[in-house]
Design a protein that fits this description.
There is one protein chain. It is built from nine helices and eight strands. The protein is an alpha/beta fold. A five-stranded parallel beta sheet has the order 5-4-6-7-8, sandwiched between helices. A three-stranded antiparallel beta sheet has the order 1-3-2. A hairpin with a 2-residue loop joins β2 and β3 (40-43). α4 runs antiparallel to α6. The radius of gyration is 20 Å and the shape is globular.
């Protein structure tokens, strides 16, 4: 069981039960559908609570083991929420565009990240300003800004995160595909038009409503924070002593 408690009333208020038109449904979502209303499917929120509880327990455990939860959400409704979640928990994220090979070709992508971090270090230390004129330094800064749009969220990404959390698996199909290829567990919000069997921890819910995305992201944030807190409590005493924390 997850430490974070899920409230079904909050899910209802957030509109988590509203699915897509019945004509757009995916048959594998049948176990999570409660009924039809006005030509749309209604998601069974009791199933949402059950699955979310399992997913949160997994994410809490992942964070407690010191592993990263890679957060992905590039569509308009999710961008700000996903970034807020990631920054608050210190986790890597993608909110602009998924770069092919982010997980499966980390050697190449990681090389670009290293180049970006080196440029930032040289800019901050004044090394570039001492070697180049103002126009050239400005061009370096523009390059840094452009690269941060693509790589900013993954600068601290480890080669193999412990899990990937995705808001919309249709929109983030490439991210899900790469994670599956590497057997990295995927936790995702799955709407009625998606195939829940593509992910390890499906959370049946409306993946378009901002309130739903925000609420589920808040639950994820809480689970990750709980896990990180457990990690600190179980840190070996000798490690603490080395850090000067043991009295």
């Amino acid at each position: 069981m997850a430490t974070t408690e899920v409230d079904i009333k909050k899910l209802l208020e957030a509109g988590a039960h509203f699915g897509h038109k019945t004509s757009r449904w995916h048959p594998k979502m049948a176990p999570y559908i409660h009924s039809k209303r006005g030509g749309n499917h209604i998601i069974d929120l009791t199933k949402t609570v059950e699955n979310l509880d399992i997913a949160l327990a997994f994410l809490e455990k992942t964070a407690s083991e010191g592993k990263q939860v890679f957060v992905v959400g590039t569509k308009r409704q999710a961008k700000d929420i996903v970034k807020e979640l990631a920054v608050a928990t210190g986790m890597p994220y993608v909110t602009e565009r998924w770069l092919g090979g982010t997980l499966t070709n980390w050697q190449t992508v990681g090389g670009r990240v290293k180049y970006l971090k080196d440029l930032e270090t040289k800019m901050a230390s004044g090394q570039l300003a001492s070697k180049y004129n103002k126009l050239e330094v400005q061009r370096f800064q523009e390059e840094i800004d452009q690269m941060n749009e693509l790589y900013g969220g993954i600068k601290e990404l480890q080669a193999r995160p412990g899990a990937v959390f995705v808001v919309d698996i249709l929109n983030e199909a490439n991210a899900v595909r790469e994670a599956r290829k590497l057997s990295i567990p995927v936790v995702a919000i799955v709407d009625t038009n998606t195939d829940p069997s593509l992910v390890d921890y499906p959370i049946p819910a409306n993946d378009d409503a901002i309130k739903t995305i925000q609420l589920i992201s808040d639950y994820v944030r809480s689970a990750v924070e709980q896990g990180k807190a457990k990690q600190k409590k179980t840190e070996p005493k000798e490690d603490k002593a080395e850090k000067g924390e043991e009295k």
